[in-house]
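Case study 2.
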Amino acid sequence: MTAEPALQIHKLPEAGEYRIDPERSGVTYASRHMFGLGRVRAEFRVSSGLLNVASTLAGSSASAIIDSASFDSANERRDRDVKGRGLLDVAGFPIIAFSSTGIREDGGAIFLAGIVAMHGVEAAAEVTVLSWDALAPGQIRLTAQANHLDRYSFGITGAGGFVGRYFDLAFRIVAVRSET
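Prediction:
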């Protein structure tokens, strides 16, 4: 699954470890429901994570932890159902984790290969970096997209046609350089 290239990076941010700022970061979830007739959008909070910027793109890496109980679609009943045992089961699986396994540039776009751990299952995913820039000295702003993830690959098969099988995640990340 490769998203369309959308970014060219001419200069990497200053090398170092950057911690994700949970107050200024988040993830948007988008999918279909009701047998594909309706669109669902929701937000998740990013609780922590790291961006390790090396002197080369290939040496860089990323990881993030998402609070699964923070799912918020602005529909209380839907949120309660999604957080329940038939879907996210946030009591049993309180986090969703991403850890990059590789990073590459292709046609001017940057792709993070990685593993998503969700609902007790790990599955491969590719994240397309849409923008990456210095927000201020010692701060990085990153936007990225993971498209067409399959909830069945994570063992989340409940609710049949009422909950879409495929979903997209859009990441808005602000990270601050760690003091060493």
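The helical segments are 76-83.
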